[in-house]
Specification:
homodimer, about 250 residues, alpha+beta, 7 helices, about 35% helix, about 20% strand, globular, DNA-binding
DNA sequence: CGCTCCCTTGACGACTTTCAATGATCGTGG
DNA sequence: CCACGATCATTGAAAGTCGTCAAGGGAGCG
């Protein structure tokens, strides 16, 4: 189904040549509906797709896609790369409350016509499709409802993770979550590169980066994962799942 | 706007006479659109409202409204009372992941036509309106999108609370959250009765009930709250907000 | 009246954060 | 191409917090 090679696309961040925009843009992918969420895939949206595809836009690693408080004029579909969603609290500190990977729609939590509730920052060179609000047709809106309900359930899952798991289980569950994301993208589920720094991961999980590091080390000692720098290998998904379940 | 007396409706759980169904059902309210979320209020939904109001239904304290895994045939609008949303994990333990108060729509996280992702249990005698899926018109669907995006942002807020706050701040933020909910219902924001047990509250916040108890005691010592049993008084909302901010 | 469920309090132990310092890696500029 | 600086990862030791276990008290219900 995917026309991409079945290698870890995220590793494009390893050489981190940041290359030319051409490299990150992945022109070959720009017109492949597989980059869109499954729910937005298929015939019914062809008219809409044309609209979307015409307005794709690159964002370089570290750049801000949209900033919390800015007026919202469009949704974005993430094609290539990874984003983090951060909230700036009253005292100015930044808290990571989510990550987004290819296939995600950015802006579901924001009600139409108002402001962005969060800031989205590219973790690696990314490529996004702008979906102007005018293009949000009735049919698309219905698809978005499904996406939102999916995301709501996912948030409930995060709630479970944050509230009821130990740090080791949280980190493990986070890895499995990434693994699932990769798997849905038809990429290797057991071997991938963390697109975010330990600090971001720690912020997201409500931990300190030192604890993330120690915990990963502990998981490694138990043989549940292997690390080479930011590169993760999960030899036995079932074993890790069992560990994170309790 | 509200025709109810401006007293704390939730205190109806204090005598906990559990009374007759008549008492909890609050027949006088059954046909007041104020019980519905503001977004569902107003003229455009009159046809729909009739449908809803015809099928309102009482649920007694402790009873299960819908159970995780059951097939989903309707949404519910909560009119009177309070619910908790619990997830039963693989090992059979129950985890509270949310509370719902009058005005809430139950079932937003569940995609249409499938199963309930969570179990909803009444914390006190409640009264709900059943909204069959057929009654979910295009117009209503559009309103639901707003409700869902609101709820998503709320979940992000919970995420922030769980990940970045100390236990004291979590408990305080929880009280403020309830206070806001009461305020939106035009009820006293500074004096209300906790509709849930410490155990449920602790489960929701990822704590133990002993810690909730101790933390509330600590907040009381600092003069931020006052307790008489389950009844809470917040003398200075700003002070508590400042405390919970950091 | 007694049972049950819930709230409360204390002491102990495990775990995570905090603070501090070193090592590794990447990007930049000479 | 190498050197430097900055950022990120790693590790240790100390301190604080919260969970666990245990026991007692109180309110509601049958």
């Amino acid at each position: 189904m995917l026309h991409w090679d079945n290698h870890d696309v995220a590793t494009s961040s390893e050489p981190r040549a940041a290359g030319t925009p051409e490299k990150a843009s992945c022109h070959a992918c720009r017109f492949k509906p597989e980059c869109l969420p499954a729910e937005l895939d298929g015939e019914p949206l062809n008219a809409f797709e044309r609209n979307v595809l015409r307005q794709s836009r690159p964002v370089k690693a570290g750049q801000v896609l949209v900033r919390q408080g800015e007026e919202m004029h469009a949704l974005y579909a993430l094609r290539v790369g990874a984003l983090k969603a951060v909230i700036t609290t009253a005292d100015g500190t930044e808290r990571v409350i989510g990550f987004r990977f290819p296939g995600a729609i950015i802006g579901l939590a924001e009600p139409e016509q108002t402001q962005w509730a969060r800031t989205f920052v590219a973790l690696e060179d990314a490529w996004l499709c702008r979906i102007p609000m005018d293009a949000v047709t009735e049919h698309l809106r219905r698809q978005l409802v499904k996406l939102m309900s999916h995301q709501l359930r996912q948030e409930y899952n995060y709630h479970l993770n944050l509230a009821f798991k130990s740090t080791a289980e949280k980190v493990g569950a986070f890895l499995l979550e990434l693994s699932d994301t990769w798997h849905r993208r038809q990429l290797a589920a057991q071997r991938f590169t963390l697109p975010m720094h330990y600090t971001d991961m720690a912020s997201y999980l409500g931990m300190r980066h030192e604890s993330v590091c120690r915990t990963l080390g502990s998981l490694e000692q138990q043989g549940l994962v292997t690390r080479e720098g930011r590169r993760i290998h999960i030899p036995d998904l079932q074993a890790l799942r069992a560990f994170c379940a309790g």
